[in-house]
Amino acid sequence: MAKTGLTVQVRIDGLRETIAALNALPKDASDEIRAAAAELAGKLATAAAAAGRAEGRQAALVATTVRPARDRVPVITAGGARKLGRNRKPAFKLLFGSEFGSNYYRQFGKVHLSGGSYWFFETVEAEQAEISAEWLAAADEIIAKFGGA
Question: Which residues sit opposite 77 in a β-bridge?
Fold first, then answer.
């Protein structure tokens, strides 16, 4: 079955090395980094949903599908098969039009942005540095707490 949602992971410099250090620690360390990542992903999902609600009607509908995902790094998802709006269309059919606009379908209200974003990716990029720094700080604390390298 085709994927109907969009999953975005925050880009973090030094991620592989940090995950490798966390892998050498007990399972409790993994649980703690998942909790920290879930909290940060929740903040990011809230910011992205707010940006979608402010963007327009189609984006506001899709913004209701933005959720944090459980992982060791901050991840959010959007879209899916849930039916939205008056015409009960699946969220994945509205996601990219609300995000990048359309030159053909006027329902999205914005022209197509070549290489740009209106709300979802724009918000992720704007919050990326802060989320990355907070995640790395949490990972450093957890590695120090469990006596890692």
Answer: 7, 67
From CA 95, how far away is CA 102, in angstroms rounded? 11
Nearest Cα to Cα of residue 15 among 121, 123, 128, 120:
128
Distance from C-alpha of 62 to C-alpha of 102, rounded to nearest angstrom: 16
Q: Residue 96 to residues 32, 106, 114, 116, 121: CA-CA distances in angstroms?
A: 34, 14, 12, 12, 11
Q: What is the pTM of this model?
A: 0.88
- CA-CA distance, 114 to 91, in Å (whole number)? 22
**Strand, coil or helix: 69:** strand
CA distance 14 to 133: 11
**What are the pLDDT digits (tens) for 33-42?**
999 999 999 9
Q: Which two tokens stand for residue 5?
A: 């949602």
